[in-house]
Structures are given as structure tokens and as C-alpha cells.
Amino acid sequence: MARFLFVGVGHQERALTGLITYSPIGEAGSWKNSLRKTKTKEQLIGSSKKTNLLNAFHSRKINHLPAAFRGNKADAAGPTAGMQDEDETGHTIPILSLFEIIEKMQENNRRKSKQSYGAMYSSIIGGITVDPTLMVIPLDDHMVHRGHGVFDTALIIDGHLYELDSHLDRLLRSALMAKIAPPFDRSYLRSILIQTVAASQCKQGSLRYWLTAGPGDFFLSSSGCPNSAFYAVVIENALSFHTEGVKVVTSSVPMKPPQFATMKNVNYLPNVLSKMEAEEKGAYAAIWFDDEGFVAEGPNMNVAFINKDKELLMPSFEKILSGCTAKRMLDLASTLVEQGVISDIRIGNITAEEGKAAEEMMLIGSGVQVTPVIMWDEQPIGNGKCGPITHTLLNMLLEDMKAGPSCIRVAVPY
Ligand SMILES: Cc1ncc(COP(=O)(O)O)c(C=O)c1O
Predict the structure, then answer these.
(1) Which fold has domain 114-238?
(2) What is the model's pTM?
(3) Which string of b and e fits 205-215 if b means at least 16 CB within 10 Å?
(4) Tens-place pLDDT, residues 39-88
(5) Could you list the active site residues?
């Protein structure tokens, strides 16, 4: 393992390696067992009284460790814990012990999170943790410092993974484009994802996962990274809806060129800035146009329109991300064509004029489902209210999420 090991943690690598061998879904005693196996045991604990204190701390029977564990070279975790001398500016940056770090990370977790993280898998440790404090990744993973990683998300709805296989296929396509050879075959990756959700006990939320070049060094090329890595995290939250409709603006942030827009890689800075621009203008999302001036997509969603002839219009996926939700919605929408609710489905170039003159506009994606757009650049879309076809498509999608076929909804074996 690398010297600079964990995001936000810094050194103490041997101590942390000991921590990571502890199986967080096991009982409290496994912490102690893990420490026993750790070569640095004497540095870490020193006496059985301290072991008991550590166990009590870890199982949260006590909230703070006594001073002997804090920043004391002789007693605390690891050889370098302690206070440094003041520098000429009067600043003193502490070198923290293992237990101070864990304590601070736990404190941060308690304070920080609006969201709750149910479980994390990491191929670096080869298993799952349900302790958010231990949900960390190596700083020298090339995903962190070079953006050499791809990711995807699947929704967890009523204890089922929605469209897991489409999302996994897209992850593998993205990995191929990013020249990342996955550390495991598809079937093993799929098992990891399902078992991580099972370990989390989460019934409503989302599963996010990353294939990365892996840890190795801080060079540009990933040739020094011996193994690619796979991470997954379960985030508990309920679906949120904007059924009354949202405003969008045209993005002034340039969109990614097709090679990068079609690959779901972790370089989302343009997407982030575009979303921030929208929020600054009181809108929900900013819409991109492609290099030829046609409507493209939003920062984390696809877009579609219903024109005056009741055609469903959607940009082709050649220059944008092929949305799993949009593809599923197109399948579902074909029944509306049979019923005569929609006259046709047209995939291709859409101009700004065509888009803004549409009767209905919608955002489509895992995070927004089907969300009506009622205003674009301060110009109302249709009558400025959620359109009936958008409403129907949203209901069809929600029904599919709750009761669709088993190939679309993968039951999680909790
Ligand atoms: C840029 C972009 N386009 C479209 C989508 C919609 O994709 P999906 O429906 O698979 O969530 C996303 C999803 O995050 C995205 O990031």
C-alpha cells in the first residue's frame, strides 16, 4: 500500500491497515482480534486496560478516549503522533494519532451528513464496511488526483435495484473507453453490488459505484497502478419529485466533447459548474447545446420534448450520455404511440427554436425520473404548466420502478 493512504487521513498506514482488516459487519470483538494481528499492537495499545477502553470507544459505550491516547508519542497510536513545534507564523499543526483520527472522523460523520451511507465496498480491502468512518479511498488512486475513473448509479426502490444491468453495462462500456480493465468479471461485480446493498439494509436510496485506475503513485500515467479498483456505496434517501415543474436555463459552460460526454467518467466539473450556474439564476438545471448548435442534455439528465404534432422528440445519444432512464422511457412510450397519445417518437437533431416552441419539455434521469420543465430562459414551455404527456410518462416510469418485470427490478436478498 502507498505511503499517503487515505483521503483526509495522511500517514499511519500500518495502524490503518490493521483497522481495515477488522470486519465492520462482524461483532465488536473482531476489532480486538484485528488489533492482535497487527504488528504495531504494542504501539497501538500497550495494556489490556487500554484494550478495554478502545473496545468501549469503538462500540460507542464511551465517546472520548482519555488523554493517554491523544498525541502522546509513547502511548498513542504510531510513532509519529504528537505536537510539532510552532513555525515562525505561530501555527502548530498537530500530527494525529490513529485514535485521534478515528475520533475526528467519527465526529465529522456525526456532524456532517445530510445523507446516510449504509454500506461501502472497496476492492482495496476486498470487502464491505457498514461504518461510515471507514468509507475511505486511497489518495493515490488515479481517480482522485487524475480523474482516471468511471462511475454509475442505480436506484434502490422498495428493496430492488432498478435497471441494475443497464447501468452495469454502461459502466463497463465507460471503463473500456477510459482504458480501465476491471479488477473482476461482470458477474462478480454484479454480486458485489447486490451484496453491498443487502449489507446496508437500505430499501430506498441509490447505489453508486466506481471503476478506477487504482492506487499506485502520483504520476500522470496509470501504468504504475498494479490493480484497478472497484468501490460502491449505498446512500439512503427517498425519491424526490418536482411534479409542479422546474425552470431551466441555457448553459454558458461549454459541454464536454462527444468522446467524454458519452463516457460516464468522473470528470464532472463542467456538469457541476453548469448546475451551479442554473442555481445562481434561480433555475434547476442548465441545458447544453452540442458543437452544431442542437439541444444536447443537462448536467445529469437527458431532455425530451412533445411538439405541437404530439411527437416525442429526443436528441440522439451520439454526443451525449446514453441515459438508462431515457432508454427505458422510450420503451414505455412506445405503448403511448400504439394508443395514439403520442403520434411518433423522433430521435435526432432538435434546434433551440423547436425546443422552446414545444408544448411540453421534460428532464429524464435516475435523479429526476421524468421532471416537467415549465420555463426555459424565462420563456414558458407550452402553457407554463406540467403537460399531460409528461405526467403520463412520469407515472408509467414510477409504475415500472415499483412493479416492472424482474429483469428490470433485481430483488436484493437482505
Ligand atoms: C450527463 C448525464 N446525462 C444523462 C444522465 C441520465 O442518465 P441515467 O438515466 O442513466 O441516470 C446522467 C446521469 O447521471 C448524466 O450524468
Answers:
(1) D-amino Acid Aminotransferase; Chain A, domain 1 (3.30.470)
(2) 0.83
(3) bbbbbbbbbbb
(4) 344 444 444 555 566 556 555 556 555 555 554 444 444 545 677 778 88
(5) 264
